[in-house]
Amino acid sequence: MKSLCLVILVFCMIFNADCDQATERDSYAVEIIFYRLTTATWTAQSMETTFAGTVAAAANTYCESNVAACGLTTCCTSVSISFKETEVGKVSGYPQKDLKNLKHKFYLDFPTGATASNSSVTQYVVVNSAVYEILRLARETFHTQTGYWITWADETYYGIPAATKENQIIIPIAVVVLLAVIFLAIGLHFWNKKKQNQARLRKRIDDRKAMKKNQAMVQPTYRVDPDIKDIDDDHTEKTLNGPHRIKLTPTVRQVTYKHSLVDNSQLNNVKNIYVSSLHEIFLYSNIAVQISLLSSKLEVKGNDVI
To answer: 3-state SS of the chain: helix, strand, coil percent to 5?
Structure first.
């Protein structure tokens, strides 16, 4: 009877363990994306074995330095307690095609003989946060062996590093294009500034030409000194024995006439000629007056004689 109870207890313990392990495997499985990998290539090149080997090796490297993060008390210090390919299991139905990529889902069991730490939230599998870091290490080795990249792990994006040859080509081209854009921008700035200066200079020249053209159309004008009265008989008598007081003054310092400039010396010559003419007029007028007076006197004397 006691033996039967012991057997039943052992079977219950095994049954509960299997149920807990399956639950953890399903809960902490990680879905990953292989960039531009097909199911046919995956199967033909036996990449399941390659993937399991790279993940197990990366798990040993990571968990040896981060035992608590992996949820273990000790790990990877000996061959007996270390991750092997058999601890990397895949979820049923995977891998599968995902557009041009390959989608896979797997879980990572604790190594055989390893003990979960008291702070671990799992008892049988490595948690997702630790698996993400393990994949970060494993993807480099997997790419080296197969030529394909792991780009996603659930919501974690690892990206696709550019090839070295592509970097050697693209980076110099990018630098040259950037420098060309900078020099082009500077050149356009100075070109635009030069055009603005030329436009201002052209406008200034056009304004000067227009001003000269307008000045050429203006006839010279003169004004008489306001102090000089109109020339009448009384004024003529008063000024017979003295110099005349007529002054000619141009309205502008230089008068433009028929596209030539008349300066002050030329105006003075005109004034001198005009003054000389007036002198002659006044002289002849004075002679005429004297002759008329003399004639009048002779007529008076003649009448007296008669």
So the answer is: 55, 15, 30
